[in-house]
Give the backbone structure.
Amino acid sequence: EPEVTQTPSHQVTQMGQEVILRCVPISNHLYFYWYRQILGQKVEFLVSFYNNEISEKSEIFDDQFSVERPDGSNFTLKIRSTKLEDSAMYFCASSERRGGSYNEQFFGPGTRLTVL
Amino acid sequence: AQSVTQLDSQVPVFEEAPVELRCNYSSSVSVYLFWYVQYPNQGLQLLLKYLSGSTLVKGINGFEAEFNKSQTSFHLRKPSVHISDTAEYFCAVIRNSGNTPLVFGKGTRLSVIA
């Protein structure tokens, strides 16, 4: 069964460093998402991406964040200069682009980012 | 804007007992409703969803949920839980207009005790 994969499973970095989180969405999906979950808090939407551009983003997704689809399979989230408060579990998701009003989002296992 | 409230952060229950995990939402537009489950060290898995039609929806692993529009609730139930149901459960809503973001509650940790 096709699934969304994410690498690495755990990333430790120093404050101020750049990190890139990687996701491989399901191959025929066209919509991609990043969510994050700070420990003990709710899962929050960061950004959605379609047709090589940002479709929607939340207030959390400021200039420190960027997303890219560098090739036909990967979808990345870059944090330019990490802060302590960026420590969280980051989830990637993907969905098909079909007609109608609902397309299920399939989630990856997450990357735990720890900023020291 | 939409918001989701899960009042219970932790629910301990004995094996084979029934369980109800509560979820309330608010929204100024029509929404679809979901329950996701997260097992340890795994991603979010869709348990069930309400899009339209019958207000009682059945999902995987014997779970069901009932949509109550007047009470803006979507509580999750299972008549008899197993040890393997121990996990984090998230209620979520989505605007019913295309590929829009999910809005999650804070989650409820269900612990099934032998």
Summary: The first strand of chain A starts at residue 5 and ends at 7. Residues 30 and 105 of chain A are 11 Å apart (CA to CA). The two ends of chain A are 37 Å apart (CA to CA).
